[in-house]
Each structure stands twice: as structure tokens, then as C-alpha cells.
Design goal:
GO molecular function: DNA binding; DNA-binding transcription factor activity
Distance between the termini: 21 Å
Pfam families: IclR_C
Helix content: 25-40%
Structural class: alpha+beta
CATH topology: Beta-Lactamase
Protein name: HTH-type transcriptional regulator KipR
GO biological process, one term: negative regulation of DNA-templated transcription
Order of helices and strands: HEEEHHHEEEH
Shape: globular
Largest sheet: 6 strands, antiparallel
Organism: bioreactor metagenome
Number of helices: 5
């Protein structure tokens, strides 16, 4: 997490699944004066936001269906997707890319890029993301930011014994 934060000077956050939700268990602040705020211990829906969705997208389809049928799909901002068909499209795209990007889905004027952390069994153990003000994610930064998030999550996954 520290290497990721240092590489791009954005806040990094670690999330794990807790039942039908995601819980933020660690956050490292960047040194920039303007940053996105996330409280450690915060709970969020698995279907919204890059860090929770990076976990959700890599769960078995049956578990995703079970969660989607059980939870209330809440529209936190105008960008929160609550249509189940659209959520499935985003999940499939996240699986294809290996990461996900959100724009103001849980909080206005923020972006996040998240990717899954995979354990030695091949199951998703959590996710790592960067988060910041929406105006800092642009054509000049997106490729670097995605590459650094993927580098970090692959390194953590390998440290956990994942060999895929």
C-alpha cells in the first residue's frame, strides 16, 4: 500500500468483504492538500465503488446473485448503478480488465480505481484501490494509475501464495 501511495501520491485503501458488505480496513493518506476522505471501518455496498466492486466482481456468480437479491440497491449519488443488468455488465467488464474504475458512485466528485487481491486458493481475499478528487483522473494519469494499482495487487496476491 505504501509503495502504491508513493508511486502516484494518491490515497490508497484496503477493503475486505464482511457478509453482504465491504469494510474499509486500512487507508494511507497522500500528501496532497486536496484528497478524498474515507474512514477506516466504513461499510459500503459491494455493488458500488471501485474497491468494493473489485471484490464483488470476483465472487462466484451464485454468491453475487444471492447478494443482489438480498440487499437493497441504494442510489448514493447520481452515478450509483442500481439496475441489476447494468451491475452485471460492469462485473463482466471488471473481470475482463482485472480492475474497475468508479466516478462519484459513493461520494460526489471522487474517483477510485480498484483491483482484487487473490489468495493462494484463487479466491478473492480483498481489494486495494486508490481514491482522489475526480479532476485528477484524466487521460494523462489513468494508464499510470491503473498500472500501479494492478502492480500492487498482483504483488500482494503473489505474497499470499496466488500463482495465477
Amino acid at each position: 500500500m505504501e509503495r502504491l501511495r508513493s508511486a502516484i501520491n494518491e490515497c490508497s485503501q484496503l477493503v475486505v468483504q464482511s457478509g453482504d458488505e465491504a469494510i474499509y480496513i486500512e487507508k494511507l493518506e497522500c500528501s496532497r492538500p486536496v484528497k478524498a476522505y474515507t474512514r477506516v471501518g466504513r461499510r459500503a455496498p459491494l455493488y458500488a465503488g471501485a474497491c468494493p466492486r473489485a471484490i464483488f466482481s470476483f465472487l462466484p456468480d451464485e454468491e453475487i446473485d444471492k447478494i443482489l437479491s438480498k440487499v437493497e440497491l441504494i442510489k448514493y449519488t447520481k452515478n450509483t448503478v442500481i439496475d441489476k443488468d447494468e451491475i452485471w455488465k460492469i462485473i463482466k467488464e471488471t473481470r475482463r480488465l482485472g480492475y474497475t474504475i468508479s466516478y462519484s458512485e459513493l461520494a460526489e466528485e471522487t474517483y477510485a480505481i480498484g483491483a482484487p487481491i487473490i489468495d493462494y486458493t484463487g479466491n478473492v481475499a480483498g481489494s486495494l484501490s486508490i481514491v482522489g478528487p475526480e479532476n485528477r483522473l484524466n487521460d494523462d494519469t489513468i494508464d499510470l494509475y491503473v498500472a500501479e494499482v494492478l502492480k500492487a495487487t498482483r504483488g500482494i496476491s503473489q505474497a499470499l501464495g496466488y500463482r495465477g
